[in-house]
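One chain shown below:
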Amino acid sequence: MKEKLLFVTKGGEDCDKGFSYVLELAKALNAGIAVLMVYSKLAMESFEDVMAAATFAEAGDIETMRELMRGQEKEMNETTVKKISELSEKCRNANIDFSSEVKTGEAIQIIKEFIKSKPGIDMILLSPNLSGDKKILDIRKMLKNITKPIVTMMPVKAEA
C-alpha cells in the first residue's frame, strides 16, 4: 500500500506555505498527499466585519449586515477553491496522488476525525501558518491525542 502524507493548513491566502516541502517529501517517499484545510469558527468573522455588522444591525439594517457576512464567506470560498486548485495542479505535474478536504472547527478534533476516517495516513505535516499559531493549535495537546508522526513547520524569521 502506498504511503500518504497529510498536510494540514489553516485556510487563507498563505495556506500553501510549506507545501513545497511536502511535495518534495512525497516525491522522495513515492507517497500521495492529502490536504486538510482548517478554518477556525472564529476565522469566519474578523473583528472589523463583526463590528460593522453589529453597527448595521443596531441601526435596524439587517440586510446590509447579512450582505457583509455573506461577502466575507464568498471571498473565503473563492480563495479556498483557488488554492486547492493550485496545490492539485502541482501534484498532478509531479504525478503525485492528491486529495483535499476543507473543514471548520477545532483543529485537533478535525485532524483526529480525518485520520480515523482515512487510516492510510502515515505522517502529519503541519504548515507554518498553523503550527505557529497557538490560538488555533496546541501542539502538546495534539501529541497527546494523535499517535501518527507529526512534523511541524515553523515560520522562519529573516535575521538582519
About this structure: The chain has a mean pLDDT of 82. The first helix runs from residue 19 to 29. The radius of gyration is 18 Å. Residues 4-152 form a domain with the Rossmann fold fold (CATH 3.40.50.620).
